[in-house]
Amino acid sequence: MSLSGALRGLALLSKAVPQGSASVSVRQLQSAVHGLKGFATDVQLSKKDVVYLLDNRDDPEVDSAVKEYLTAQYKSAKTAADKPEESYELASKIEKKYVAAQVVEYGIQNIAVPLGYGKDTAPVKRFVSQLVKLGHKAGFEDPAAEVEKRLTEKAQTAETAKEFLARVKPYTSAEYHAALWEALLAVEAETNSTVTLDGSSAGYKKFAEKVKAVATANNIPWKLLVDAKRPAGDEEAQGTARKAYQAWAQSARVADAVGEIEVLKAEAAALLDKHLAKTADQVKQEQTASLASLQKKIEAAKGAKWAAQFQEDLKTISWFDSAIATNPAVGPRATA
User: What is the rounded distance in angstroms from the CA atom of residue 223 to the CA atom of residue 212?
Assistant: First the structure.
């Protein structure tokens, strides 16, 4: 019985139980659960089940079932099929993308954007870490690993540097890509030939030198990136290079996150300015002036009941603001 068939059995069981029934008969329960027990112990997966479970083989029983299915397919490969089997690759991809979207949609609601961060970037680092963990939970690879894999795929099929740059354009910033393109055109004009991806060619070597210069101008540690990706050799040196690369990657992520957060803050301020007759700074200045004026009135009416109550209210507001400033992600917490 396939996994979908076993689950369908449980679904039919719930529909078969009459409304208001307090229990299910042993026979009904055994019949419905038999499908899942068969799936767990004497598994006979369908092709669709195997396609979906290929990347989820942490469970030993599932892994064993997948191996048995693949072994059976291999043994029967010499027998010609009467008709072509259905392909479930597309359906599996759609299902996985839907599940990933559900995970992200729910998880993103529990991640607070650190709009109130200051010189201390710890809240931003925590924000980046939460996003990366959510991506892993949804089935996505590390962003750097994903980009590296796609760049490798593009490089494997490209024959010229111009073709390679055209393919990797979506993965580079507009300014950086324009600088690389300009460097390539300069090399091709100088050599009067097309630069290929042959590492031993003169054109490639000249282009590589210009790429190093462009990377340095854009604060990209090209030597660190090269050392971190060298083939296995000196393990100690390679381990040091990898640690340095990880530290740089973390700082780059934080810098990107800070840039995105600043954009959000600017958009929020612009939205407030658009809907308010006064700018946000003007409103803050007026609020500060009003509080100062109120404080003077309270001091002048010292001993009055309303003044004492206002003083308590101001203390509460001050505590609330300081609690938010201390931890914007959590905010104030009441204590006994």
Answer: 8
pLDDT tens-digit map of 121-144: 888 889 888 888 888 888 888 877
Give 140-165 pLDDT, tens digit per residue.
888 778 888 888 887 788 889 999 89
Per-residue model confidence as pLDDT tens digits over 61-118: 777 787 787 777 766 665 555 555 555 666 667 777 777 888 888 888 888 888 878 7
Assess whether pLDDT exceeds 50 at residue 24: no
Give the Cα separation of 222 and 46 in Å (integer): 49
Q: Give the separation between CA 49 and CA 136, rounded to whole angstroms.
A: 22
SS3 content of the chain, % helix, strand, coil (to 5): 70, 0, 30
Q: Which two tokens stand for residue 211?
A: 């790429």
* Predicted pLDDT at 332: 65
DSSP string for residues in 267-300: HHHHHHHHHSSS-HHHHHHHHHHHHHHHHHHHHH
* Single-letter amino acid, residue 133: K
Could you give the CA distance from residue 302 to residue 208 in angstroms, rounded to a whole number? 77
How many CB atoms within 10 Å of residue 194? 15
For residues 57 and 67, what is the distance between their CA atoms, to the nearest angstrom? 10
Residue 20, CA distances (Å) to 16, 17, 24, 126 in order: 12, 9, 11, 49
Token code pair at residue 240: 């040091």
Question: Looking at the predicted structure, is the pLDDT value of residue 182 above 90?
Answer: yes
